Amino acid sequence: MKNIAIVTGASSGLGREFVKLLLKEKELDQIWAVARRKQKLDQLVEKYGDKVKTYTIDLSDQDAILEFGELIKKKKPNIRYLINNAGYAKFCSYDGLSVMGTINMIDVNLSAPVALTLLALPYMRRGSHILNISSQASFQPLPYQNVYSSTKAFLRNYTRALHVELKGKGISATAVCPGWMRTALYQRAKVGAKKTVNNFLGMVTPDKVARKALCDAKRNRDMSVYGIYTKSCHVAAKVLPQKTTMKIWMMQQRF
Ligand SMILES: NC(=O)c1ccc[n+]([C@@H]2O[C@H](COP(=O)([O-])OP(=O)(O)OC[C@H]3O[C@@H](n4cnc5c(N)ncnc54)[C@H](OP(=O)(O)O)[C@@H]3O)[C@@H](O)[C@H]2O)c1
User: Fold this and answer.
1) pLDDT digits (tens, 9 = 90+) for 70-110
2) Which of 58, 64, 111, 187 is the most exposed, having the fewest neighbouring CB atoms within 10 Å of its CB?
C-alpha cells in the first residue's frame, strides 16, 4: 500500500505550492495532482519527477468524481493528506453570473471537497490530514462575492465540525483561510463587472500560506490563518456585527 497525498487544483497557485512542499515529505510515495489542465499537470511531472501522478478531472463533474473514487477503491492507498484546494471566485454582483455558472462555482468550491473527503476517509488512518481551502471570505458575508464567500463559509464550518467528529480516529481536518494571495485566481474572477473588487489589502504569496497550513494540520489545528492582516480580519469578524463588517468591506472596495 502506497502512502499518498491528494492535492486538487495542483496546476497553479496555492495547489502547486502544496505539491512542492509535500515532495519533501519522506513518508510519501506519491502525490496525486488533480486539475483540468493536463499540460500544467504534465509540467509538474517534468519538473519534479514521477513521484507526482496526474489526474485530469473537472471537479464540477459528479460522475468524474465518483470515477476517481472508484480508482481510490481499486488502488487502496494510505491517504496521508487530502488537500481540497481547487476553487474559484467571480467578482461581480448576483446578476453577473448565469444560473449554471453559479451552480458550477458551488459544485467546485464545496460539493467536490465534501465528496472527495467522504471518498478518501475510508483510506485515511491515524495521523492523516484533511486540509480544506476556505478563505478569509468565509469570515463574513461579502457583497459582490456573495456566492463565493458563502461557499467558503460552508467549507469552514463543515471542516471544523468534521475535525471534532474525527478526533477519536486521530485524523485532523483543517480549514485553511487565506487572505488575498498572489495567484491566477484574479484572472478568472474578473468578469468586467462595473462593481468589482479592486482593493486587495494584505496580499501575500501562496508559499507562505501553504507552509503554515501544513504546520497547523500537523499540530492538529482545525483552522489555519496566515498573516497579521488576515488574523485581524478574523478577530474583527468575531467582535463586530456583520452589518458593520459589510459596511467596512463596501468602503474598502469603494462600492
Ligand atoms: N488567491 C486568493 O487570493 C485566495 C484567497 C483565499 C482563498 N483562495 C482559495 O485558494 C484556492 C486555490 O486558488 P488559487 O488562489 O491558487 O487560484 P488559482 O491559481 O486560480 O488555482 C485554482 C486551481 O483550481 C483548479 N480548478 C478550478 N476549477 C476547477 C475544476 N472545475 N476542476 C478541477 N480543478 C479546478 C485550477 O486548475 P485547472 O484550471 O487546471 O482546472 C487551479 O489549479 C481556491 O480554493 C481559492 O478559492 C484564494
Assistant:
1) 999 999 999 999 999 999 999 999 999 999 999 999 999 99
2) 187
| 203 CA: nearest ligand 1 atom | 3
Q: Is the CB of 113 under 6 A from ligand 1?
A: no
152, HSE (Cβ side, Cα atoms, 13 Å): 25
Question: pLDDT tens digits for 113-153?
Answer: 999 999 999 999 999 999 999 999 999 999 999 999 999 99
C-alpha to C-alpha distance for 218 and 210, rounded to whole angstroms: 12
Per domain, the residue ranges of the chain are 3-252
Give 17 Cα–ligand 1 centroid separation in angstroms: 12
